[in-house]
Amino acid sequence: MKWSLPIVVASVGVALSAVPALADSATKSRGQARSEVEFGMQVAQRGLWREAIYRWEKAAELDPTYAAAFNDLAIAYEHEGQLDKARKAYEKALELDPNNSQIRQNYELFKEINDRTSSGKDRQ
Amino acid sequence: MIGRVPAKTASSVALLPAALLLAGVAIACGPDYFEIPIETPIQPKLDVSAFQRVLVAGFVAGGTEDVDANQETVRLLRSQLRTKSQLRVIDADILPLMDVAQEGAKPVNGDESGPREGGNGNDHQQAVGSAPAPQGVALPAKIKDEKDIEPYERLFANTAYWKRIGEEYQNPLIVTGTVLFMPHSRSGFVQRDQEVMDSFGRRRVVPMRSYLERKGFILRPKFVFIDGRTGAQLYSESYREEILYNAQQQTPALSSYFELMDRLVPNFLSALSTQKIKGTRVLLK
User: Fold this and answer.
1) Would the CB atoms of B283 and A81 count as touching at under 8 Å?
2) Given CB atoms, is A2 within the 8 Å cutoff of chain B?
């Protein structure tokens, strides 16, 4: 028991020193993710949607709490006709930022198209 | 003069990266969102790879007498399919499906059954008579509403008849169905935004409720897709659209018909071919 106190103190010290390091790493990830998102926006404007998807997927991977990355990714999936993936990405974006009216508007427009193509008919 | 041209080109080339850089900077320093146009491709609901041709055969139609909904629907769908699908559209006489169904519904006895058995390939009324569809049920001669159109629907389950039509046109995909286009009126309170001036002379928009008598039309089409090789139904879809105008407004029935069909045609086409739906979305930083 005598030796346990220094170990506990040392452990707490290590943990405390790791907190700023973790915060620093998170900030760095968000910064990188933001760069990817911005680059994705540039290429999407030039019609390079696949490259944009690659960038936005990377951004979402770097920072899984970045709602804008999921929103942009959803738009790109929608443009490519990958509607299931688009729905999941929109839902993730809204889960991360439920009060964002622009994400909600994008999602509503997406749903209007998606619902129109899958309801109101009687399949035989 | 000749010597100056390369200099200009060189300066343009030099400006290009700068312009791209500026565009990048504009995005990086600009607002946190960007509106972008997109085109969403919608995969066809029906696999039509087995067909090279499509026959828009005709429709059981009714409602108003101001518009021949059978003829107009066939013409519209054929022209849309010609430009917006890969299938070759067969130009053929429009089938009088109401007559065909009525003939098929007549009780089979004595003299009436005689001519049906001896019909040729072009006699569609005879073809349906020889099919195992339920018979002896009187069909309304005029279709005014949904109830009148319902008994006609069994015509689309008459595989023998549709197989025969398919054979006649070398096994195409057959498009048929029902179209009900009928007048409609509705009265009640309607809320509308109205611009008013307040006591300070400022303009304001306030919601106003007013009683309105309106009239217009309802369009209820049902599109049925039939495999011309087997006569079997592949798929069907029903829609309902309505339009209302002020009671004083005189809008021709035909223009209302086209206005309502305009809303449905993309859905109809998306059953057969990939369609792209244009829209805009907001990209976020």
Assistant:
1) no
2) no
Domains of chain A, residue spans: 16-116
CB B27 within 8 A of CB A38: yes
CB nearest to B284's CB, from A71, A110, A117 = A71
Q: Where are the alpha helices (DSSP H) in chain A?
A: 4-45, 49-62, 67-79, 83-96, 101-118
* Chain B partners within 8 Å of A42 (Cβ): 23-24, 27
Among A35, A83, A102, the strongest candidate for a mutation testing the B interface, having the largest count of B CBs within 10 A, is A102
B222 pairs with which residues across the strands?
A: B178, B238
Interface of A with B in 73-112 (CB under 8 A): 75, 78-81, 83, 100, 102-103, 105-106, 109-110
Nearest to B70 by CA among B61, B79, B78: B61
Give the pLDDT means over successive 10-residue stretches in chain A (124 positions).
Answer: 59 61 74 95 95 97 96 97 95 97 96 71 39
Q: What is the pLDDT of residues B152-185, one digit of tens each?
A: 998 999 999 999 999 999 999 999 999 999 998 8
Longest dimension (CA), chain B: 99
| Closest-CA distance of chain A to residue B25, Å | 10
pTM: 0.64
Cβ contact, residue pair A122, B238, below 8 Å: yes
User: Across the interface, do B237 and A121 touch by the CB < 8 Å criterion?
Assistant: yes
What is the residue whose two structure tokens read 């041209």? B5
**ipTM tops 0.95:** no
* Residue B32 to chain A, least CA–CA distance (Å): 10
Distance, in Å, from the CA atom of A111 to the CA atom of A93, rounded to the nearest integer, reads 15
Residue B175, min C-alpha distance to chain A (Å): 14
Residue B255, number of CB atoms within 10 A of its CB: 11
- Token pair of B56 as six digits: 């828009």
In CATH terms, A16-116 corresponds, of 2.60.40.420, 3.30.70.260, 3.40.50.300, 1.25.40.10, to: 1.25.40.10
**Cross-strand pairs, A70:** none
d(CA A98, CA B247): 44
Give B237's strand partners.
B223
Cα dihedral sign, B162-B168-B173-B179: negative
